[in-house]
Amino acid sequence: MVPTKIKLLFALHILLCASVTRALSVNTLSANQTIKHGDTIVSPKETFELGFFSTRNSTNYYVGIWYKKISNRTKTVVWVANRNTPLTNNFSKLTLTIHGVLVIRDGMNDKQVWSSSNSSTRSVRNPLGQLLDTGNFIICEEADAKQENPIWQSFDYMTDTLLPGMKHGWNLVTGFQSHFTSWKSSDDPAAGEFSCWLDKKGFPQTIVTNGEELVTFRAGPWNGLRFSGIQVMKLPNRLIRYDFVLNKKEIYYQYNLISDSVYTRVVLQPSGILERLLWIDSTQEWDIYIQLEKDHCDHYNVCGPFASCDINNIPVCDCLKGFEPTSPEQWRVDDWSQGCRLTTPLNCGPKEGFKKYSNLKLPDTQWSWYNHSMTTKECERMCKSNCSCTAYTNSNISGTESGCLLWFGDLIDIRKFDENGDSLFIRLPPSELESSSAGRRVRVIVPIASVALVLLVTLYLLYRSKRNKQKQEGTDGNKSGNDREYDKGDKDLELPLFGLPTLIKATNNFSITNKLGEGGFGPVYKGVLEDGQEIAVKRLAKTSNQGLPEFKNEVMLISKLQHRNLVKLLGCCIKGSEKMLMYEYMPNKGLDTFIFDQTRSKLLDWSARYRIINGIARGLLYLHQDSRLRIIHRDLKVSNILLDSDMNPKISDFGMARSFGGNQIEENTTRVVGTYGYMSPEYALKGIFSIKSDVYSFGVLMLELVCGEKNRGFVHKEHSNSLIGHAWVLHKEGRSHELVAKCLSESINASQVLRSIHVGLLCVQCRPEDRPAMTSVILMLGSENPLPSPQKPGFFIEIVTGDTSHSSSSYGNSSNNELSITVLNGR
User: Fold this and answer.
1) pLDDT value, residue 526
2) How far apart are CA 274 and CA 369, in angstroms?
3) Does 635 participate in catalysis according to the annotation?
4) CA torsion angle for 527, 532, 534, 535 (degrees, to 10)?
5) Structural domain boundaries of the chain?
6) CATH classification code of 23-156
7) Closest among 54, 50, 52, 86 to 67, alpha carbons compared
8) Beta-carbon contacts of residue 282 (< 8 Å; ≥ 6 apart)
9) CB burial readout 595-610, b (16+ within 10 A) else e
10) Which of 49, 136, 161, 537 gives 20 to 30 Å between its CA and that of 679?
11) Which of 718, 705, 697, 428 is closest to 592 using CA atoms?
């Protein structure tokens, strides 16, 4: 017999154990109500469940949401609250406070581990938490029966899963962004390495990044039917309806189920792969319905600029028609990082047009512009009118094609599809447009081939006759050594030759009244040819430290360049010691005659200066990227910017310029040439020059245009900073507006001025790799996107003593006391 006392104790123990293991299941969570381990909140139709869980191989605990109706071996978790702050015991609790905030507390020490951090300014009365059948846990007022205005919702704070009804994107009113991040591993819900974003720089597009900046996958822009790079998003779809919303208040992607009987979710796996999973009830497994990175061509920017990736080809990368490898050597060994460039460079001429490329994944839209109301014809005209525009297409292909999407700069991350891809219209020079239509004229060309041959021979003979006549007019039979050297290379010059008598007559014998100015090369004169054409004649001075090499360099480089923001070289003349270059006449002379003149500076208001800044930037972009040769100017300064009758800027003086090969990044020289105040620190101190040297000079030029002061010789009366240093100090203190010239006070556009100063400071950063390329400069000037913070400028303090200028540099470990340069030709 068991004693009665023992029976009572045993019964009490059973009751206590039952109370400990009791599980509470509720549909809502009221203010100050708590749930513990084993307790759950269930959605009305019992589709989803919220509670505490742990993963298979972990002793940590989390609060999450999972499918209740799916009886899989492990929970399919779709949302985790405390993913980065796990609990280490099962004595914790989840509470809804009277202020409408969810709080997770560690039961061992009553320490708060996580909260929903309600930032709402609304006063809360009777908050209520409820798990909906969508999987969204919301906190709302108890009186809000329709749940249309929640105080907080889990859908805004995704983990690794995009559920039907979730908005993936931006609230433009509040600036809030919704994105999702992979788990660290299959057993660790902590934030992993990969995130999926809706990138709103340019035309919005979906991207996956490793970290915050390294793009690994790009789904492309929304084209009205699907993301451009995801062909499997085909319509009509019996399971899913896709939506993309783009207006002044919101930008987001969303999908919804057509039938409630289907379970599907989009998951960013720990490996960085995006997958759409579909629940198969018969197998009780999640099946991969769509995998967005299915082959090598889905990786981001495999083939570089102006190239396309085709998984059906070997190798997979090929230049677009009309383009050639930038680095043939690297291309041959399957290194496509340099991409392609135009076979024939653009010059922004009126005969340039567009070629249609079909079945493509549209290029990266970070450097794009869009307008949904424009027609296709208006879009084409808009692109053609802007020399920096490289391609266009319709932004919406659903139904009638409409809208306009423009690209500026390089076209990257393009892939070729077999069918159902997007169309892209890419800017090409006239020769490429003619060659693309040559096939349609074959039958006409063949019968007249013999006639064409005779015509070509005749034209060639006429050309040689005219050339010989020009040489006879330009020489006197007693050539100097320099003349003979010039003749050896004149086959490469391809430039009209003017006779000396012609130029003497045009300039009134180089009269002092015709003199326009004088530079390092020599004096410049205005001339008028017999047909009435006005020209500028640059005459090499006998005392100039520039000679035949600089003369030939300028002729050979600029004769091959054509752009509306580069001065046009019309011809040259050489006789004896005389060497001259003939340019188009610029009636408004140099930019320096305006901005540094107290009276004439008032004639250049801010809109004119801003237009000049952008024009110079486009000219530099052409030199650095779009011309057949990559040209480094090396002497970009205000006095080398000429202004035509409409005050349009044109870059001039290419005597110091150097050309680079397509894959060359920088070069070193012992002969440093240029102008103090504009030379970058790595060039002035170490002789290293690159396109970033020109970017530095452009930054100085921008600051001078805003301030109206010369960088060289400027010393602030309070802190002895140079113009660059003064601008940087003001920027750090939020007082950049104090840099603006007084004559601009009535005409400034404040946002443009401050942005120009900011971009100028980015251009004059000490380290060349920190400075933006001209493609980025143009985009930064033309957009309102946030800008990175500039680092310390290259030359921060300049102290002038007597006639000597000494600069302290923040570049590398160089010191003025130890520096030795073999040749320094500064001006």
Assistant:
1) 93
2) 27
3) yes
4) -60
5) 23-156, 158-294, 298-436, 479-584, 592-826
6) 2.90.10.10
7) 50
8) none
9) bbeeeebeebebebbb
10) 537
11) 705
The architecture (CATH level 2) of 479-584 comes to: 2-Layer Sandwich (3.30)
26 class by beta-carbon count within 10 Å (0-12 exposed, 13-18 middle, 19+ buried): middle
The first and second tokens of residue 325, run together, are 């490898």
Mean pLDDT confidence for 75-94? 94
DSSP E strand boundaries for 13-119 = 25-26, 28-30, 34-36, 40-42, 48-53, 62-67, 77-80, 93-96, 102-106, 111-115
To which CATH superfamily is domain 592-826 assigned? Answer: Transferase(Phosphotransferase) domain 1 (1.10.510.10)
Q: How far apart are CA 796 and CA 726, in angstroms?
A: 8
Average pLDDT value for residue range 408-427: 92
**CA dist., res. 104 & res. 52, Å (int):** 10
Give the CATH architecture of domain 158-294: Orthogonal Prism (2.90)
Q: Mean pLDDT throughout 758-784? A: 92
**pLDDT of res. 482:** 37
**What is the value of pTM for the model shown?**
0.58
Q: Which tokens sit at 745?
A: 């006070």
pLDDT, tens digit (0-9, with 9 covering 90-100), for 270-305? 999 999 999 988 888 899 888 888 888 999 999 999
Per residue in 694-734, pLDDT (tens digit) is 999 999 999 999 999 988 777 666 666 788 989 999 999 99
Phi, psi (rounded to 5 degrees) for 816: -65, -30
Q: Indicate if 158-294 has the same CATH topology as 23-156.
A: yes
Characterize the bridge pairing of strands 515-518 and 323-325. Answer: unpaired
Give phi and psi for 498, each to the nearest 5. Answer: -105, 140
**Tell me, what's the pLDDT at 54?**
93
Three-state SS at 728: helix
Q: Which of 39, 364, 635, 653 is catalytic?
A: 635
Listed range (201-215, 438-452, 674-688, 774-788) with the worst mean pLDDT: 438-452
Q: How far apart are CA 33 and CA 39, in angstroms?
A: 12
Q: Dump pLDDT digits (tens) for 447-466.
A: 445 455 556 655 655 666 55
> Is it the case that residue 79 has pLDDT exceeding 90?
yes
Cβ burial 806-821 (10 Å sphere, 16+ → b, else e): ebebbbeebeeeeeee
Distance (Å, rounded) from C-alpha 732 to C-alpha 722?
15
- CA angle (44, 50, 56) in 5-degree steps: 135
Q: Comparing 429 with 239, which gets the higher pLDDT? A: 429
Nearest by Cα to 591 from 747, 760, 708: 708
Q: How many residues does the chain have?
A: 827
Q: 759 and 620 in contact (C-beta within 8 Å)?
A: no
Q: How confident is the model at residue 656 (pLDDT cuts 50, 70, 90)?
A: confident
| Residue 419 identity | E
